[in-house]
## 1
Amino acid sequence: MGDIESRGGFDAVAERAAREEREIQRRIDSEERSFNPDKDGEGRAMQAGARRYPEPPFPEQHQSKPGREAALDPPPMYDAPFYRGSDKLKDKVALITGGDSGIGRAVAVLFAREGADVAVAYLDEHEDAEATRRAVEKEGRRCITLAGDVADPAFAKAAVARTVKEFGRLDVLVNNAAFQEHVTDFESLTEEHFDRTLKTNLYGYFHMAKAAVPHLPEGGAIVMTGSVTGISGNKDLLDYSMTKGGIHAFTRSLAAHLIKKGVRVNAVAPGPVWTPLNPADKPAPKVAEFGASTEMKRPAQPEEIAPAYVFLASPQCSSYITGEILPILGGYAGG
């Protein structure tokens, strides 16, 4: 039996399918040739919030460490005017490291709006810390500021002790302080640089948690700040990415360890957020395009990240959640 006979009528069916495929291809090719990214929205930043958020390009700027929110242009949006509190943290006490600016300040404001008193630990950004204190007090809650280095175990103990002395208790620890500095060549990553990153981002989280845990009651919570770099890595943030991955592992391990005490431990892993951490790291031209490579084509503002910390700190919202890493990345690439 010949090839034609063995195939029967399949040839005609196959040819018709091939014609249909070419027609689909022709239509898509035509549409792609006429596609205008800006007109069709593909090239624009996504705006899905209660108010509009700034989009790249930003003014070129670079800051000396640890960075100052007061000098950032445009100013980070942290006050979340459309967020309404509902006593999710009523009469609780929270200690927030890196609470002077960025995500930490936004978290402090929303915690206060939910009824918590707040202790803000920071390095030496006194102007920013005072602005956070005023913002918390504007919400009708008390706030103290604590200057020091979280890498120092003596400061960690003192910060917790002062918080308990001032407010009488400690219910929530937010480990958020961080050091970040890029390198473009692996050989440029010195031991001093590597050590500073680990001391702040890992030792600091360890020291603060160790000091806080004896005071946390059943129903207390620890919320860590991780990072997308701890999930996917970053070629220029070798040490920082390693510490953020370590924070994710520390979160899961400490969560399992503290179940018997009734304390939940979770982490938020943000993508790019408009805070002083980044202009104090990146060169000015890269700051101008910060966040443009996300699916939403812009960085988050701190007030867009802070509700996740409320959710993970509040026993009304997340009493059955511990050991989780919550990524907030501005979307996932589909291709």
## 2
Amino acid sequence: MSVKIAIIGGTGVYDPQILSEIREEVINTPYGPARVVIGNYRDREIAFMARHGSAHSVPPHLVNYRGNIAALKELGVKSILATAAVGSLNPDMKPGQFIFIDQFLDFTKGRHSTFVEEGVVHLDVTEPYCSRLRNIMISAAGELGLEFHGAGNYVCSEGPRFETAAEVRMFRQLGGDLVGMTSVPEAVLAREKEMCYATIAMVTNFAAGISPNKLTHQEVVDVMAQNAANLRSLIMQAVTRLDTEEDCPCQHFLEGPVSLGSEK
């Protein structure tokens, strides 16, 4: 039986113990091996992948995004719920709140951002995150009484450094609400593999120049830890509501992109 649901845990989310009957697999892909933990939750098999490694040892710019997504596709995954710790550019989006992002601005520089290596394929990313999964999570958050925003514009920076105050001012002027380092190319790669993908972003701090304090990684980890129980409840409530057999346009995107063939 294929594993149809995956959770990608970001900073502060390394523990697959929400699952039972856990087993670990290493899946070899053309982009390198990927480690995944597979377990059971309410009679559903779920794959758990720690984006930065179980010891949080892989920085965001060196994550093997292609290997991770290719491995989940190999398992048969159709729906991915990803978590992300983010800094806020928007005063209305406060630390501890959840944001179900619907758009991104890509400011990454040196990452392998596509599986396409032959020909010219233009993929539609008008809506880069699965609206079906987002609506499921919005409903789950409402049922749990959590503080959340149903949409937000995620700015993806290269990292691993935090952003300068000038960069944050620019991102705000461009319409960014949140800033993080991992959603791109992860969301795009999932779309290329025709998997539903949505991100649960949790605000851990206000970004540089907005926060009155010096930014530290420990601050991010501490806020994630404080809200870990809410995050786990949200993820598992969403998993419970997810119909793994329901069809979705995300799973048919390669039927629609414009292909221009090989350029000379």
